[in-house]
Specification:
This protein folds into 2 domains: 5-53 and 154-186 and 222-290, no CATH class; 62-149, no CATH class. It is 31% helix and 24% strand. The chain has helices at residues 14-17, 70-90, 94-99, 106-124, 126-134, 167-184, 191-195, 209-212, 286-290; strands spanning 5-8, 24-31, 44-49, 61-66, 144-150, 155-163, 187-188, 219-220, 224-231, 245-253, 271-280. Strands 1-3-2-9-10-11-6 form a 7-stranded mixed β-sheet.
């Protein structure tokens, strides 16, 4: 698929002109998702000025609270893991592997199990709980944290206040909004018609108007996006990189100033605020952080 459009706002953005008033930008490039196919051909390339709200990178970890045996079992598993890692690194014998388990205090684990059983029994008995309360004693839940995995996919929100200087720039803004919307929404697919040689499941060209509406059972996937930071001077992709993403929403406010403004000659919008949000499609790990993500 040939590249459809190369769009830039404002027209003096350094990304395209090699200089200008705007020396820092964000370059959005969309790629179609084709069923069972991959492609490197871009659909849209959109360059917009870099905003402060987009320069936020997050890292999250999910931990679950556990009580009772959790603390002892977590410590025991940690010792086993450390011993096994030593064994794997050394390429040792079976005795080295067995040594991974030697430091675990199984007597302590048995004692903890008995305490846990007693505590569970007391929790289930209102009479025993009242007896403990009367003695100014409470059960120690022995809370601990258990790692569950990485957090959610990173999300990024970009806000672009746009004020058109002339009709041409207003038209460019409209084309940018249209490109984001087209690449965010699905298309119509008619697999039956495609098999019969009518239309295409990739382009959504086949089928009747009724099938293209509520009567259709199939959609093509929206596009994915590459997002890169750029600078007139210095290395690109600073301060961090963003992995391949999908666009979750496109919001165009045509009354960004509180009241709508339009050019008198052709009623093109004068001031627009564009907000686009993205979610990466990969989980960021230590290895990707080392690569700049």
């Amino acid at each position: 698929m040939a590249q459809k459009a190369d769009l830039t706002y404002p027209d003096n953005l350094g990304a395209k002109s090699g200089g200008g008033d705007e020396s820092h930008w964000v370059l959005f490039t969309s790629f179609p998702q084709l069923f069972a196919q991959t492609t490197s051909a871009a659909e849209y390339s959109i360059a917009l000025p870099m905003g402060a709200q987009a320069l936020i990178s997050t890292s999250e970890a999910v931990y679950a609270e556990q009580e009772g045996l959790g603390t002892v079992l977590t410590e025991a598993s940690g010792k086993v893991a450390a011993g096994i890692n030593d064994y794997m690194d050394s390429g040792g014998t079976g005795l080295d592997f067995i040594a991974a388990f030697k430091d675990i205090n199984y007597g302590k684990m048995g004692e903890a199990a008995a305490e846990h059983a007693l505590g569970t029994t007391i929790k289930k008995s209102d009479l025993l709980k009242k007896a403990l309360g009367g003695s100014n004693i409470a059960i120690n839940p022995k809370m601990s944290l258990l790692y569950q995995g990485p957090g959610k996919f990173r999300k990024f929100v970009f806000e672009f206040p746009m004020v058109a200087k002339n009709k041409k720039e207003s038209e460019t803004i409209q084309e940018i909004i249209k490109a984001f919307r087209i690449s965010t929404l699905p298309g119509y697919a008619d697999p039956v018609g495609n098999i019969a040689g009518i239309g295409s499941s990739q382009t959504g060209a086949g089928g009747t108007e009724r099938k293209k509406g509520a009567g259709s059972n199939f959609y093509t996937f929206p596009s994915t996006w590459d997002i890169r930071f750029g600078h007139t001077r210095g290395a690109d992709e600073r301060p961090f990189r963003i992995a391949r993403s999908v666009c979750n929403s496109v919001i165009a406010n045509y009354a960004a100033a509180g009241v709508p403004f339009f050019f008198k000659e052709d009623s093109h919008a004068f001031e627009i605020k564009l907000t686009v949000s993205f979610t990466e499609i990969v989980i960021i790990t230590k290895e990707l952080v080392e690569q700049g993500f």
